Amino acid sequence: MSSKMEAQSSGNVVQGEITVFGFGKSFLGPCLSPFNLKLQTYLRMTDIKYKPWFTTKMPSKGKIPYIEHNGKIVEDSSFIIQHLNSEYKKDLNAHLTPAEKAIALSFQRLVEDNLYWTLAYQRWLMDDSILDLIPFPNRFATKLFSWYTSLKLRPDLRKNMRGQGIGRHSEEEILKIAKLDLGAIADFLGEKEFFMGSQPSEVDAVIFGFVGLMTFTGSNSVSAKDVKENHPNLVAYVERMKQLYWPDWDKLCIPEGTTSWDEMQQQCG
Amino acid sequence: MSEAETEPLIAIYYAAPTLLAPTASPFVLKLLTYLRMTGLKYKSVHTLKMSSKGKHPFIVYKGKEIADSTLIIQFLNNEFNKDLNTSLNAVERATSLAFQRLCEENLVWCVVHDRWIVNTDAFLGQLEMSNMMKKFMSFYVSVRFRRVQQANLHGHGIGRHSDEEILQIGKRDLTALSNFLADKDFFMGSEPTLLDCTSFGLLEQIIECLPGSEYEQFIKEKLPNLVAYTERIKEKFWSDWKEQCAQKKAKHVNQPKSDKEGETLEKVKVEGQNGSGDAYAKSSEEEDATVQEKKTTGMLPVTDS
């Protein structure tokens, strides 16, 4: 379904325009990938115009999202943000002290290099709820995707998780790790408006990207229920971020009843 | 086990020390530092046998194996009513956990990349073994072990970046640690906490056990507070650091396998020291019959837990 080493060009590149390539939308959200949601949230926070584009082709690092900007492909959400900060002279962290920037980075690592795996585990390896998020034209297509998930996506994820280390734990241990990390995020956030204080910073894009995606598109997962029951401040925070930077969230979702891939692709273009 | 002891000792299993450090693993060093901070007695058992999770360290306590340094520490905290984080409030605990994740889920992979992909020869030079063994290890690493680490790095994600990009990521994390530590004695204030076990375990590996690496140069030149910090921790908890390292032998001796392997592998003798020094005296045989210890000293230390 995806081929590496061959990034897709959007075909109608406008000078200066940024195209964000991802796996597209779902019935419940504008992105399927938390890294994509992080990047798009950052773009909205910095008022940098962009165009999302659906793709199944991935460039050299084999990951989503990537951008095309002035004919150049840039991969990895963090490197993309650094690139755009430099190009557009943006810095969402300008108001933070060096120690605060350090703390923000540490939570970014907690989310992207630890919590992410526990959420991916719940999304892909605990049940088939992922199938409810995307449209299929018929039962055969659903079955085909289900086979692809079983034969490729899930084994790949298990292999990556084992390499990373967290995959060596039991399900119970993985869920405990998720609980611990989400508790830490909620405790640090407290009653603040944004993660680092009264002003937004880059780490807000990260937290919203992962916790927001889980809350709004994976609400039946163990972690989503944990957040809903135990961390109302975190629920309020993602709602706040959504209202502030994604007032068009519902409009961007794939409409209910959509069944064809082509229609979905058009929706994402 | 010493006859005088009535309490069962915690047996820590990990690969033999190197010439530069009591262990090449940041996670083993984290656990050993935790034990010294809490005053819990333990014995070291050098082995290439892996835990059920395929990593080091693991412990055997009252006949039960527990793997993963974080799970081991949680277990020991409960069993012995210890908590290095009692003085921290909720926000501080959260911050401490976040930095632990930065160290263990990201920065450590930069070290793995440097040690096993970029500067392997520098690491092999730290092992106490004959020239012939070193040649074998060099071959084994290039044919097999490096591939395993590349797969791990790829699975994590960081392995997909270029060497230069990985270096940039590592330096960013190190700068964050330095900025957060600032001029404090320990990471969370004036007293050591659990985060210090993690950060010392990793920083010490970078500062002393990645000789000639860009990370070593970067830390020593740009982040002197981290160097001073590791020296502070060593002074407080590792006054026997040099004795705990592998000692350079004039002649390498291959020893036969037997049930008494543990005693013959003994590398770390600390005699007549007070406090935690005594606990590390002997690596005596475990009752666990499945433990098989290689005779060759300074064998390849394993991937981190």
TrEMBL record, chain A:
InterPro entries: FAX/IsoI-like, Glutathione-S-Trfase_C_sf, Glutathione_S-Trfase, Metaxin_GST, Mito_Protein_Transport_Metaxin, Thioredoxin-like_fold, Thioredoxin-like_sf. CDD domains: GST_C_Metaxin. Residues 34-128 form the Thioredoxin-like fold domain. Residues 178-241 form the Metaxin glutathione S-transferase domain. Belongs to the FAX family. This is Failed axon connections homolog. It comes from Clavelina lepadiformis.
From TrEMBL, chain B:
It comes from the Eukaryota. Residues 170-233 form the Metaxin glutathione S-transferase domain. Residues 26-119 form the Thioredoxin-like fold domain. It comes from Clavelina lepadiformis (Light-bulb sea squirt). Residues 249-305 are annotated as: Disordered. Coiled coil: none annotated. PANTHER family: FAILED AXON CONNECTIONS-RELATED, METAXIN RELATED. This is Failed axon connections protein. Keywords: Membrane, Transmembrane, Transmembrane helix. Residues 257-270 have a biased composition (Basic and acidic residues). The lineage of its organism: Eukaryota, Metazoa, Chordata, Tunicata, Ascidiacea. The chain crosses the membrane at residues 12-33. SUPFAM superfamilies: GST C-terminal domain-like, Thioredoxin-like. Belongs to the FAX family.
